[in-house]
Amino acid sequence: MSNLIGEAFQQAEQLLKNAFTAAMEKEQLPQGEIPAFTVEIPADTSHGDFASNAAMVSAKAFRSAPRKIAEALCENLELENSFFDRWEIAGPGFINFFLKKEWFSQTVEAILSEKDAYGRSNYGKGEKVMIEFVSANPTGPMHIGNARGGALGDCLADAMKCAGYNVTKEFYVNDAGNQIAKFGKSLEARYLQIQLGEDAVEFPEDGYQGEDIRELAQEYTALHGNSLVNVSSDERQKALCEFALPKNIQKMKDDLEKYRIVYDVWFLESTLHESGAVKAAIDTLTQKGMTYEQDGTVWYKATSFGAEKDDVLVRGNGIPTYFSADIAYHYNKFAVRGFQRVINVWGADHHGHVARLKGSMDAIGLDGSKLDILLMQMVRLMRGNEAVRMSKRSGKAITLSNLVDEVPVDAARFFFNMREPNSTLDFDLDLAVEQSSSNPVYYVQYAHARICSILKNLAAEGIQPVQEAEKRNLNLLKTSEERELIRLLAKYPQEIIEAAKAYDPARITRYTLDLATLFHKFYNACRVKGEDVELMQARLALCLAARITLRNALQLLKITAPEVM
């Protein structure tokens, strides 16, 4: 697949390296190591399509003025058979490259040729990657933080797939441990309150107080009546959990599918305990000398790997901790299932767990550097200028299910993916449902619909885009608005690669906004239908290329690309 912007970057870099070598051979520059330099797209492309600081950063190494170095380099730039037709030296020594008109034509032709595949690459070379995200406790509804984590994780996974990685999406179900014990006690209290009266049973102080707990207890009562009233507390809690957990997990699946997220794997924590994987992980750490016992408690020597304090693996009562299960789970990811890289999307409140989990992978004989944790900051829900108050503890939090009932899924996924994960996000509920250019997702979708409308209206007049490449005189596309739009279209494959490298799928969302803006700018400045048939066909081809790219980007984000609005 094509990546003409990436190829142009590589060409400019190689041309400069060749020029350094040639200048040294001609003794125009002293022999020495070529310093690291950058090639970038300047903010103002009227001064050049690409710019490099190669001469500026070489002044010390070659003991010469940057301008003099730039002159020596440019004298040795061999532009033949490259994308560039000329260069300029600017200011104290910046080197600017100007693209040939054929590069712009090639870009449009590549998009029209590749269609749905445009943007894909083999950058990741099939590396086996697992992305685990959301992984909410199955003890209640998913909340707004899960909605952001879902959009980020899902879009990152699809961006990495598009960039050539072999990606698996996974949800880790915490169906064991303290939270399940608390879940059982909460269900038991609500069940007994239904059977014996509200005042007869005190609700646990730290129990889950959401209305969903009461509803589950009522569902069980409707099916089984008072069958659990006279059994032991352990038997009662076990029966209620076995009834309620599958329902909650299925509700999670249904809500996430409504949010357009489908996982490859739902991994149950309980299977790690049942299979002996947790015990095996602890035994492996013990064999490696990484544990010790104190007062019946088994500790992991976390301080040996940079942690501030050691961690408990097995409590004095013989029950493994959540951390033990986490080590076993990540050992399973790497050693059992063979993932070469693992990415976890976590809330920022888990930041203290990052170093110790990565360290535990080193301790157990794996490579902790292959585990990357993407920490996601909080979401603040807004209505206009006012924050929406919510309390997870009282059960009054706005859930993922509530959100997608109130806000279109397109808007939810777009808004949650507009900023990089490590930044706090304000989500304006009123703006998300507004049908105007102020709503960013509406603005982008309108650009796609506008292109479709242009093509439809011309088709109604009997004007169709020519299909033969040789009949499209794309060299006629030379206004600043046309060239600016083509440059951005060319960036799309590289933008996906950069999103995959930086674990920042918000780059794609921001890209769609930039593309919509430049298309509107082009359309307002350049008349598509006109007396010059060749120019009209060239601009029609550009419209088609913009539609393909915009649609591909929106589909990657799992946002609809409407043809009519």
Question: Can you walk through the features of this model?
Answer:
- Helix 5 links the parallel strand 5 and strand 6 (166-173).
- The chain is α/β, with parallel strands linked by helices and 565 residues long.
- Helix 5 crosses helix 17.
- The mean pLDDT is 94.
- The strands form four sheets. A five-stranded parallel β-sheet has the order 7-6-5-11-12, with helices on both faces. The protein has a four-stranded antiparallel β-sheet with strand order 1-2-4-3. A three-stranded antiparallel β-sheet has the order 8-9-10.
- The protein contains 19 helices and 15 strands.
- It is globular.
- 50% of the residues lie in helices and 13% in strands.
